[in-house]
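=== RUN LOG ===
request id: a7f3
mode: sequence -> structure
chains: 1
length: 322
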Amino acid sequence: MQSSQQQIISHVDEWLRSQRPVWLCTILKTWGSSPRPIGAMMACTMDGELVGSISGGCIEEDFLEQLRDGSLKAQYDESGKPFIVKYGVTAAEQARLKLPCGGQLHVLLEYIECTDSNVEVFSRLAADLENHSKVSRIVDLRNGAISTEAQSSEEAVLLSDTQMTHSLSPMYRLLILGAGDVAKFVAEMALALEYDVTLCDPRPNYLDNWFVAGVETTSRLPDDVVRERFSNPYSGIIALAHDPRVDDMALMEALKTNAFYIGAMGSERTSAARRERLPELGLNEEEIARLHAPIGFQINSKTPAEIAIAVMAEVTAVRYMH
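=== RESULT ===
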C-alpha cells in the first residue's frame, strides 16, 4: 500500500522506464470549494491509463477527452514547456465540470518524455519516498526540466514565475500488535486512509485465522519489528493484544523512537498498571508520557468496529498535529 503521492510517482517511474511518455497534472492553487488539496496529482499515459485524482472525476473526464482529441499535445507542442490550465473560472465552466459553487483550480500540466534525465529523476524520487525521505520535485517552468532536492518547506507547492517546488511525502506506516477483532477493523480503516499496515503477533496460532487483504502479517518479536521498520516520524504503533508479553515488548522499543503515534488498548486501571511496569523496562517518564493509553478517543463504546473508529480518529488527529 502506498500513499497517493508515492503511488503516482512510482507509476510515473515505471511508465518512463517502459518508454511510455506521461502527462503529470499538479494542483497549484484552489479557490472556494475544492475536492482535492494543493499539491494533489494525477498522472496519465498517452493511451489513457490514469492514476491519482485532481477532482471528483469531472476534470479527469475533461482531461481524457482532450487527450483523445489531441488538443493537449498540440498545446504542449506549441510552447514546448509546461502550461497552466485554469478550471472553473466562469460560472458556465463550473456548471459544465460540475465543480462546487465558486470552486476554481489552477493545474500545472507537464508532458514528461522518456529521456534518461527524466527516468533518473523519477527513479530517485521513488527511491527517496520508499526510504521515508522527504523530497521536493523542482520543475523549471521555462523548459520543463525536472530536478530534486531535500524537502525544505512544509508548503505543498511553492510557485514563482520560473519554478514550481512540489513537496512530496512518504507513505505512513502502522504496526498493529495483536491478532484480534479490533485489529481487523483498525487495519481495514487504516488501509482506507492510505497507511501501509503490518500486523504482528508472536503468539503461536494467533495468526492462523487472522486475515485482512493488503495487510502484511508477521510472527517475529515485536521489538525487532519496531526497531527495523517503525522507528521514524512516518510510523505509528498500536498495541491491541491486551497481553503484556506482546504489547510491552513493542512499547519498550517504540517509546524510544520518534514514531508519530504510540498507543495501547486497555482500561484506565490496565493503563495505570502498564505505566507502573514500563520503568522496569528501562523507560523514563518523558518517554512513557508519549503513550496514548487508554487508546483512542473516549466514545463509551465496546464494539470492535466502534473502538476502531475511536482509535483511528485519534491517530488521524495526532498525525495532523505532528
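=== NOTES ===
The mean pLDDT is 90.
Residues 81 and 109 are 9 Å apart (CA to CA).
=== END ===
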